[in-house]
Amino acid sequence: MLRNLFGGPKKKEGAGFAYLFEKFPSFSQTFCIREAMAVRDSGIEFPVYSIRKPCDEPLQDLCDCAGKVTYLPDTFGHILTEDANFRRAARKALDELKELWGSEEEKRRIYEALWLGPVLKKAGVDHVHVHFAGLGARTAFWLNRLFGIRYSVTAHANDIFRDEPPERLKQIFEKASLVVTVSDFSLRFLQDNYPTCHAKFFRVYNGIDTGAFTVSARPAGRPLIVSVGRYIEKKGFRYLVEACAQLKDLDFECQIIGHGPLNDELKAQVAELGLEGKVDIAGPRSEGEIKALLGRSHLFVLPCITGSDGAMDNLPTVIMEAMAAGVPCISTALAAVPEMILDGTTGYVVPEADTATLAARMRSLLTNEAQAAEMAHLGLERARALFDLQETSHALTELFRKHHAIRG
């Protein structure tokens, strides 16, 4: 049954707080949904605004948000034509935009801020929180500049490592009330690269409901290997397929769950290596289906890499989910992954793009049940200690209160 993010009894009204997302709900950003539900469960009522509607994405069964999210207009052409005051304000703000960011390339952020500002004021909202220091944060920057509405940001991975010009990130961070990031690795990155904003940076791990996962019974029979993520270069799935080819002498099933532009390429690789019947490029699955798969898995593998374009993961949520399901994990020594998996204790961390080592570690856990069970148990304990949503959401709301993002 879908959970309604906005349902249930009314709690604390008038907190002056709202979430602003670039796209909500998003299939690949379930951590945003979970966090919003947890903040609400802590007793805070808030509206949710989304700049874009999710389109052409697999359906998700984590919560029911139908009709409860305020979406910004798809286009502003008719408003610019019909509303002289909006047009004048936009023209003035565009001059500031060009001065700050060198062009009008981001002019839609101006339109979004001009449309949303009065809506937020009418709703009594004076602070918005955005995930990712990207498009949503740029809109929040202009909400602050044009209407004085305060904002905070959760910074994740490519939004700070690659996608945004450092000079623009610096402006966004300087005007933010606080900046949360999801790992010690990214906290150090922000502190090193934006020292003038050092006092605004805080680490709060993404959280999951660790109690919502059925601990894998590791059933007898054919072992199941699971991996989950978008079919894109930085997830490193090609190396998982290659590693499976080195394990042909073992009996196993590997399901790679996800969707994305490399779908056909991965399927062709499976066929070329003769892995049909062992490796399945299985496509998207709902949150509930993934939980069920983890509940009968023997091994979780995410061989993420630094992409050729510089893209990389930071703190992959799917790893903490596998840990919470009592599944031993193998991933790579990338960004914050070693904060999750303690190499040789709760799983294995291998070098990026090292198929031979990856295959060897997979073989070790597939053939040594006692070792796999011990690592799974220690990983489960670590997930509950570090990533339980009740603890992470409490830390986040306390930061919100300390920095006056929430009234009262």
**How many strands appear in the DSSP assignment?**
15
| CA(first)-CA(last) distance | 33 Å
In terms of structural class, how would the helical and strand content be classed?
Answer: alpha/beta
Taking pLDDT < 50 over at least 5 consecutive residues as the criterion, the unreliable ranges are 8-14
Helix content: 40-55%
- Strands of the biggest beta sheet: in what spatial order? 5-3-2-6-7-8-9
Q: How big a fraction of the residues is strand?
A: 15-25%
CATH architecture of the largest domain: 3-Layer(aba) Sandwich
What is the subunit organization of this protein? Answer: single chain
Shape estimate = elongated
Radius of gyration: 22 Å
Biggest beta-sheet profile: 7 strands, parallel
Fill in the keyword field for this structure.
Rossmann fold; 2 domains; 7-stranded parallel sheet; 6-stranded parallel sheet; 16 helices
Outline the structure in words:
- The protein has 408 residues and is α/β, with parallel strands linked by helices.
- It has two domains: 3-207 and 388-402, 3-Layer(aba) Sandwich (Rossmann fold), CATH 3.40.50.2000; 210-386, Rossmann fold (3-Layer(aba) Sandwich), CATH 3.40.50.
- It has 16 helices and 15 strands.
- It has helices spanning 30-41, 77-82, 84-101, 107-122, 135-147, 158-163, 166-175, 184-193, 237-245, 263-272, 287-294, 317-324, 337-340, 355-367, 369-386, 389-402; strands at 3-4, 17-23, 48-52, 63-64, 70-71, 127-131, 150-155, 179-181, 201-203, 224-228, 253-257, 279-283, 299-302, 329-332, 347-350.
- The strands form three sheets. Strands 5-3-2-6-7-8-9 form a seven-stranded parallel β-sheet.
- Helix 9 crosses helix 14 and helix 12 crosses helix 15.
- The two termini are 33 Å apart.
- 45% of the residues are buried.
